[in-house]
Amino acid sequence: MDRAEKGAFITAVAFMGVFFALIVYAAKGLNIDVPTCITDVKPFTQGQVIQHAPDRYEIHYLAKMWYFEPANVEVPVGSTVDIYLTSADVIHGFQIDGTNVNLMAIPGTVAYARVKFDKPGVYHIVCHEYCGIGHQDMATKIIVKAGEQQ
Amino acid sequence: MRVEGSVKTVILGEIIFPIVLLIFGIYHGFMQVLYRAGIIKDMSFLGIEYYQGLTLHGVINVIVFTTMIIVAFGNAVFLYYLKKPLRPAVQWVSFLLMVVGTLMAAWAMFAGKANVLYTFYYPLIAHPAFYIGAALLLVGSVIPLFFDWAPNYIAWRKEHPGEKVPLAVFGMLVNHIMWVIMLVPVVIEVVFQLIPVSLGLISETNPSLSRTLFWAFGHPVVYFWLLPAYVMLYTILPKIVTGEGKLYSDSAARFVFLLFVLFSFPVGLHHQYTEPGITNSYKLIHAFFTLGVAVPSLITAFTVAASLEYSIKSKYPEVRNSLFYWWTKIPYISLEGDKWLVSYFMAGLFLFLVGGITGIVNASYNVNLVVHNTSFVPGHFHTTVGGLVTLSFLGISLYMVSKLMGKDIKFKGLAVIAPWLWWQGMLIFEYAMSVAGIHGFPRRTNTGISYLNPDSPLYRPEWVGYAELSVFAGFIIVLGFVFWAISFFGTIFSPKVRESTIEFPTAPALHDEKAPALNRLTPWFIVSVLLFVLSYVPAIYDVTKRGVFFDSPGYNDKNPTPITKPQSAKEDQRNTAEAK
Q: Which CATH class is domain A36-145?
């Protein structure tokens, strides 16, 4: 191995090492993590919105060919929302635009993410995993309202 | 070397058959951008439905075209470098299996019975002919390895003790053994999950397991497409760039192939970051290895650049002391001899650079949350498999056809321009798709009748500009392909001027150290399989045992009721299971 080659090799490995270290820091240090294995939540058969406190919500999303249940949810700005997602038939996708929430709905499993809505607006959700002929119409939204108390 | 008889016919068939199909694949690629931009606001066009076209585009371009061209190139490489005849019987069996399999799958797709996309996960179910056809294609593609290449390689080793096997043979051999290993999980998925459900033999199976098995194959397969391109970059490119160039380092090239053997397999979970059912630490391990697999690509970048620099500087003394000026001496557009091939490799390399960077984004665990399943992802892989891989395969196909048929390349000017058009189109396409992806634009979606149709309640105007830009890009890409196709078919239909030969320009190595560890394949493959098994056993355990995972019935793409079992029966079964 000549010197230039050795240098290139070490640089390549170092680069990837730094990238990986940053990922681990983001996941463990900043808590920006991906959905994990949930072993204790049974897949539900109905979508619903549960309000625990004025700014604490829990939404159970059921993805079906070809809609999300519940449709259009409204929450006040500053709310923290726990999102649970499952599928009643095939595999669907679920991304809340403008956030880091990006999940897969797989039959028999429940995906989970927590998101805090700090800005008012309409947050679109589209299915991004092909799920049959009506796939392109499968969308819903979360409307974050600027509350009077703010 | 001269090549006649039926082996020549087989190799030509393995090139021309998939390229005829590729015309459909590219047509449906172009239709995709039209649908997605809302230029076609409909479910179907000319009798082909959107998702049907998407399936055809994916399956033809990345399974049929790549697999058959790789087998053709591998056959030619083994024939030319080892100087040992291939067995016609083996070659015909392999070729016919691939053709029959492809036609079966093609029938299912064209009949609209297999709209499951290239990523055929359970519970969406296609017609059995689709799965059985795909299986035959794959079986056909591994036959030459077992009955032609491996015996010839072993015989060559015996006759040339202590010698290094030619680099191209080494690369293609490594690549195909990798292929056999990665087929194991997808064969398990197809044989034990998809075919039985599709035939109605079983009514339910585990969707999470199906996805895990699919991606255990679905990412390594990209290295199966990539390594033949690397073989060409190492052996052909340095030679033709000046006519007498050298490969910078032979050991580095072999080391790269072996690193792919190690790192190709423990990477599949990076496609499954956003799904529940798999513990995060295993996802993180796969993130580590996915970044690791970037290392051999970075070494390749160095070796290819160093080979080009060395070759050009030794030919042109006036640029010997320049840091960058030697770049201008690369024959980007040249009609002289075989130099037209340089444009395919250089355009491919420029695209691959972008593909590598966006690939690291996809692999980066939590960063992936921003781009998962958005158009960022197709943006990425159109610069890798749609970039370096396709361009080098198109280039080598034209080259092999002209040699094997003894014909001069017709419309060489078009053949030289084609990769540069393709390159520019792909760069614009990648830009449009990536940026749109960051704004949430989904992949695999007929956006023309929903999000990008002003009449739809789902209209999302912020995506329109990117989608329109991708139409422009698609047009340039198709133009590039048309230029190439004119040259390719022009060559085929021109009169024969030479005798049929097979030969590859081959660059000798500048640094050619003896590195015995790099010439023993077996230990590397054993470690690789171990790593594969170790990295997947916990994930498989997770998706089958650890959580509350159900088997679910199969569905077709047209109807939300299960095709294999009524929903109520499933509920009953689940209730009895809980009661126990």
A: mainly beta
